[in-house]
Amino acid sequence: MIGFGAEQVILVRDDSKKKEVSDHIGKHTLVLTILECKGLEFQDVLLYNFFGSSPLKNQWRVVYEYMKEQDMLDASTPRSFPSFNMAKHSLLCSELKQLYVAITRTRQRLWICENIEALSNPMFDYWKNLCLVQIRQLDDSLAQAMQVASRKEDWHLRGIKLFNEGNFEMATMCFERAGDTYREKWAKAAGLRAAADRMHGSNSKMRCSALLEAAEIYEAIGRAESAAKCFIELENFKRAGMIYMKKFGESRLEDAGDCFSLAKCWSLSADVYARGNNFSKCLDACTKGKLFDKGLQFLKYWTENSTPAIDIVAKLQNLDEMEQAFLKKCASYYHKLKNTESIMQYVRTFYSTDSIRTFLRSWNYLTELVLLEEELGNFLEAASIASLKGDILCEADMLEKAGYFENASRLILFYVVGMSLWGFGSKGWPPNHFPQKEKLLMKAKLIARRKSEFFYKLINVEATILLIQEVSLLEMG
Predict the structure, then answer these.
(1) Mean pLDDT of the chain
(2) Cα–Cα–Cα angle for 7, 169, 2, nearest 5°?
(3) Percentage of the chain with pLDDT > 90?
(4) How far is it, in rounded angstroms, from Cα 83 to Cα 67?
(5) C-alpha–C-alpha distance, residues 225 and 426, integer Å
(6) What angle do CA 248, 255, 317 make, to 5 degrees?
(7) Is-above-0.85 flag for pTM?
(8) CA-CA distance, 120 to 138, in Å (whole number)?
(9) Is the pLDDT score of 52 beyond 90?
(10) How far is CA 335 from the centre of its chain?
(11) Does residue 476 have a pLDDT over 50?
């Protein structure tokens, strides 16, 4: 069999017989099952042990009944044989179909090699009667006559046909005989991938081993797409992402980013999505990876380096809405951590002042809201918010900046009265002393002077009374 060529094949019943023959003859001859050879043609076909491996066994003797009906029996044929029974011989139809497929694969010569003569005799006797076959013992001269050499080009063409039919194992052998190393590795990888698919849900360890070997072969020969898919099936998403990023350039950046996201490599996925102007997925990766500063940098970059092309993509992807949603997620995250400084870093980049106000009010960040309104020059609004949070001195400061000097001065006096009479350690009259009391009263008088001289004198009297500590109320009366 060593001399069998690319246009010759050994056909066997099933995979177990195929392995048995392949192990015996090595990688020197094409060996296919009958199922695998459908649609293919060869110059020469050797059908090996079809009758010997048939589940019909000696039921093939029913052929003699047909020969009797056709008056084809002679003195050498048996006189005793079973009659055809539809129920008993139901398998015969399937066996005849397989036999037909096998013997019609040849264009020139057909050899049928059997190792149990009694099982093959019925069909051989039938064919001999029709003068269709010759019976010979397999010897060296016959084996020599069967051998046909093939060129590398023939093996190459046969390999392509088998590859396209999905018979990767035999295609691998053909490409090896053709000296085509690239296609040999390609066919081997495809065979490993197909084997892994067949093992799905059964032997996970062997399946993973086959997939990994296939992936590495694919990558080595430059079949990047196939390699990436194998690594994805292995859940090695990072390696698949690196292949998409390095081998396909800009065209597969989203696929690379998707793989990095599945691998939870959030920084890598965000970078790749950003390169591909996939704003939504980029910000989503930054959010999931808690890469809020990175996301903010991307937003600033997209704004500062805007181009007509980027603007079109941004509009199609509703970047403005995505940006606000991302910034709110950032602020909400730092709210849980009670990190006010970081919260304001993101809140201040909201697209409108009203949205900033709404956020700060909803999360009760009134101090930050006061500072915002103060920065914007909305002092009355700032005073109103300070009043809402019960910060009298802050309210007074905002009223002073708004030009409401009388209100600001009276609020400070109100605060001093409260702290003097009812503050910590106070016993009522005379007014208690507390740190900054004099400073606050001085401030109240200075603000009052900006209102009018009359109002200043009035506030001055009240301030003087609040500073008295030894005089009783009766003495004052």
Answers:
(1) 89
(2) 45
(3) 61
(4) 11
(5) 81
(6) 115
(7) no
(8) 16
(9) yes
(10) 31
(11) no
Quick check: 351 and 320 in contact, CB under 8 A? yes
- The b-or-e profile of 55-82 (16+ CB within 10 A means b, else e) is ebeebbbbbbeebeeeebbeeebeeebe
Query: Quick check: 112 and 50 in contact, CB under 8 A?
Result: yes
Residue ranges of domains in the chain: 8-150, 367-476
Tokens of 269: 């996925």
pLDDT at 182 over 60: yes
94 versus 141: the higher-pLDDT residue is 94
Mean pLDDT to the nearest integer, 311-316: 74
Over 80: is that where the pLDDT of 424 sits? no
Sign, CA dihedral 335-340-346-349, equals positive
Token pair belonging to 300: 């600033």
Answer yes or no: are the C-beta atoms of 387 and 415 closer than 8 Å. no
For residues 339-355, average pLDDT: 85
Q: What pLDDT digit, counting tens, does each position of 197-213 carry?
A: 988 877 789 999 999 99
Give a three-class secondary structure readout of the chain.
Answer: CCCCCCCEEEEECCHHHHHHHHHHHCCCCCEEECCCCCCCCEEEEEEECCCCCCCCHHHHHHHHHHHHHCCCCCCCCCCCCCCCCCCCCCHHHHHHHHHHHHHCCEEEEEEEECCCHHHHHHHHHHHHHCCCCCCCCCCHHHHHHHCCCCCHHHHHHHHHHHHHCCCHHHHHHHHHHHCCHHHHHHHHHHHHHHHHHHCCCCCHHHHHHHHHHHHHHHHHCCCHHHHHHHHHHCCCHHHHHHHHHHHHHHHHHHHHHHHHHHCCCHHHHHHHHHHCCCHHHHHHHHHHCCCHHHHHHHHHHHHHCCCHHHHHHHHHCCHHHHHHHHHHHHHHHHHHCCCHHHHHHHHCCCCCHHHHHHHHHHCCCHHHHHHHHHHCCCHHHHHHHHHHCCCHHHHHHHHHHCCCHHHHHHHHHHHHHHHHHHCCCCCCCCCCCCCCHHHHHHHHHHHHHHHCHHHHHHHHHHHHHHHCCCCCHHHHC
